[in-house]
């Protein structure tokens, strides 16, 4: 079977270019996502690994702060200004010491091209053998009454021998390189549109 590529009109191309410019404009000098809630936001110690990030980025910091090992990734996703993280888990081993819950970040996103760029950035990290596991972006169904789409950044099917500390290392790698990778992917997509 042959499937023709969909033809995009100029309006679709312009919207895609505008959406990608949001990623390219989320510069390294942008204020941290927790700046509005943090008196030390612009201090020399301000970083994704700040011990205050788990509380500052939570909508319920007293009862439900972010888990510390996933917090840098939530921080970096939010810093891109196109993703709205809404839930996260750093992953956990079960009582037997085996992987029980995988790490993941759920997020909302208005532009599908942003999701495409995120998947492309993760794929580039895999191609350079920077990750221990294969990660993916998947659609999450939260509530049948909610028409909004939610996505999850998480490891794909995990091999039985994959250790939680390897997935934690992946979280650090993704968080550290995400901004630059997203800018690179977005720039490439803009060139492809033109």
- Report Rg: 18 Å
Largest sheet: 4 strands, antiparallel
Q: End-to-end span in angstroms?
A: 29 Å
Number of strands: 6
Q: Which CATH class of the domain at 65-194 is shown?
A: Alpha Beta
| Sequence of secondary-structure elements | HHHEEEEHEEH
* SS summary, helix count: 5
| Order of strands, widest sheet | 1-4-6-5
Strand content: 15-25%
Helix content range: 25-40%
Query: Quick check: average pLDDT?
Result: 90
Quickly give the structural class.
alpha+beta
The rough form would be described as globular
CATH topology of the domain at 65-194: Threonyl-tRNA Synthetase, Chain A, domain 2
Q: Unreliable segments (pLDDT under 50, ≥5 consecutive)? A: none
Q: So, CATH architecture of the domain at 65-194?
A: 2-Layer Sandwich
Region (Disordered): 1-24
Biased composition (Basic and acidic residues): 1-22
Word description of this protein:
Residues 1-22 have a biased composition (Basic and acidic residues). With 194 residues, the protein is of the alpha+beta class. The chain has a domain at 65-194: Threonyl-tRNA Synthetase, Chain A, domain 2 (2-Layer Sandwich). It is built from five helices and six strands, in the order H-H-H-E-E-E-E-H-E-E-H. The strands form two sheets. It has a four-stranded antiparallel beta sheet with strand order 1-4-6-5, covered by helices on one side. Strands 2-3 form a two-stranded antiparallel ribbon. The longest helix has 30 residues, at 164-193. The chain starts with 9 loop residues before the first helix and ends with a helix. The model has no long low-confidence stretch (mean pLDDT 90).
């Amino acid at each position: 079977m042959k499937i023709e590529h969909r033809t995009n009109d100029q309006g679709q191309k312009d919207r895609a270019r505008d959406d990608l410019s949001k990623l390219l404009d989320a510069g390294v000098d942008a204020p941290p996502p927790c700046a509005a809630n943090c008196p030390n936001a612009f201090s020399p110690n301000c970083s994704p690994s700040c011990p205050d990030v788990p509380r500052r980025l939570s909508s319920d910091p007293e009862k439900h702060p972010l888990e510390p090992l996933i917090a840098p990734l939530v921080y970096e996703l939010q810093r891109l200004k196109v993703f709205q993280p809404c839930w996260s888990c750093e992953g956990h081993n079960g009582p037997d010491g085996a992987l029980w819950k995988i790490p993941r970040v759920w997020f909302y996103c208005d532009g599908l091209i942003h999701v495409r760029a995120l998947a492309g950035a993760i794929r580039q990290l895999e191609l350079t053998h920077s990750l221990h596991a294969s990660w993916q972006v998947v659609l999450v169904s939260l509530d049948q009454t909610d028409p909004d789409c939610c996505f999850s950044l998480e490891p794909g099917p995990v091999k039985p021998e994959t250790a939680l500390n390897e997935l934690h290392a992946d979280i650090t790698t993704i968080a550290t390189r995400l901004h630059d990778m997203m800018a690179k992917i977005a720039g490439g997509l803009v060139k492809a549109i033109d």
